[in-house]
Amino acid sequence: MQTVALDVAAVRRDFPVLDQTVDGKPLVYLDSAASSQKPRQVIDAISRYYLHDHANVHRGVHELARRATEAYESSRERIARWLNAADAHEVVWTRGTSEALNLVAFSLGEGLGPNDEVVISEMEHHSNLVPWQLLSARKGVRLRYTGLTDDGRLDLDHLASLLGPRTRVVSLPHVSNALGTINPVQKIGALVRGRSDAVFILDGAQGAPHLPLDVQALGCDIYAFSGHKMCGPTGIGGLWGRRALLDEMPPYQGGGEMIERVFHEYSTWAEVPHKFEAGTPNIAGTVGLAAAVDYLEDVGLDAIHQHEMALTRRAVSLLSEVDGIRILGPTDLDDRAGVVPFVLEGTSAQDVATILDAQGIAVRAGHHCAQLVVDRFELSATVRASFYLYNSTEEVKRLVAGVETARRLLLP
Ligand code: PMP
């Protein structure tokens, strides 16, 4: 891979929030897997929209309604270009990945019953697990779990053994939020297609912010993402789906904007994607997310990915030298995104995170909404440091020094 440089100092100037101290120490924000910070360009785009253009979309004939509709639909086109979707109608706005996956589980689930199987994995964020459990309770669909290898990868032999004529859905993470694993999704897509007629869904919450994407090349049928993890605002995200599949799927919620014609006994549906977008949408959110994609592409997704990989290599190598540390996830760092989960033997993850916080270092401690992952590794929680384009090597060193301090304070 060609090396592309990223100017961290210049990037950091775009993120005013990073320029502050916590208890007198410079903030080190290592919690971007939970939510990223926002550049000025995104904040300004949202502000411009509210200062000049806001009205409700689609219904009005007046100037502001036209501008708001144009902003909303051109943001969809921007997202379609970023994803390399064949058609902007294949992009459905939702509140984020959770809502996208709930939509899909509900809608695809309408046609499923007790003879059908949904395959997920023990690597899931609860957003790609609980909606399928709800479906299972509603329709009797059988839920099957792909196991994990000891170094935190999907066990592909196990996955292959679960696939068959009854498999109607396979839904897996592109990148694991709890382990950092980048899953070989093209290979998995080929496996799924070779052994079943299942719809192949990717939870892209941790893939979309960090990797160059081409949904047509990935080999999935549906890809879900969240704006707030990729420098965009909260409350906006979406899904990409193959048009023919979206056309077949029934609506998820009813209301304004999603109908074609309403009668006393029944209604007919608007075209995709409006069929799935009941009610007044988060218009400003779509504007902010389109600005976030502009920003990420200006910096360069290859450069961002390489920068995160360099930080991860540094972090794993330095943390490995701390006595009693156990780092989870793939040992081959090429298969790992900028997420470093670890435990310090004899300490609680919560205590380590609290001591890091006292030094201005923001990390997360817990099961990271992936309880089956911590169960699989016989833990109750991990500390998770996660990197993004604005993090520096200096911050990695601060993290490692902070963990050394936690070790000294917690272990006599
Ligand atoms: N899937 C994964 C892998 C995630 O990391 C997250 C967020 N932590 C989600 C789904 C849910 O995303 P959201 O909360 O934005 O809906």
Secondary-structure content class: alpha/beta
Strand content: 15-25%
End-to-end distance: 46 Å
Whole-number mean pLDDT: 97
Give a quick account of the main beta sheet: strands, pairing sense, barrel closure.
Answer: 7 strands, mixed
From the structure above, extract its key features.
alpha/beta; 412 residues; 17% strand; 4-stranded antiparallel β-sheet; binds 4'-deoxy-4'-aminopyridoxal-5'-phosphate
SSE topology sketch:
Elements: H1 8-13, E1 21-22, E2 25-26, E3 28-29, H2 40-52, H3 63-83, E4 91-94, H4 97-109, E5 117-121, H5 130-139, E6 142-146, H6 156-162, E7 167-173, H7 185-195, E8 199-203, H8 215-218, E9 222-226, E10 237-241, H9 243-248, E11 259-262, E12 267-269, H10 283-299, H11 301-319, E13 325-327, E14 339-344, H12 349-358, E15 361-362, E16 364-366, H13 371-376, E17 382-386, H14 393-410
Parallel strand pairs: 3-15, 5-6, 5-7, 7-8, 8-9
Antiparallel strand pairs: 1-2, 4-10, 9-10, 11-12, 13-14, 14-17, 16-17
Helix pairs in contact: 2-10, 3-10, 4-5, 11-14, 12-14
4'-deoxy-4'-aminopyridoxal-5'-phosphate binds at residues 34, 96-98, 125, 127-128, 173, 177, 203, 205-206, 226, 369.
Descriptive report:
By secondary structure, this protein is of the alpha/beta class. It contains 14 helices and 17 strands. It has helices spanning 8-13, 40-52, 63-83, 97-109, 130-139, 156-162, 185-195, 215-218, 243-248, 283-299, 301-319, 349-358, 371-376, 393-410, and strands at 21-22, 25-26, 28-29, 91-94, 117-121, 142-146, 167-173, 199-203, 222-226, 237-241, 259-262, 267-269, 325-327, 339-344, 361-362, 364-366, 382-386. The radius of gyration is 22 Å and the shape is globular. The chain starts with 7 loop residues before the first helix and ends with a helix. The structure holds 4'-deoxy-4'-aminopyridoxal-5'-phosphate.
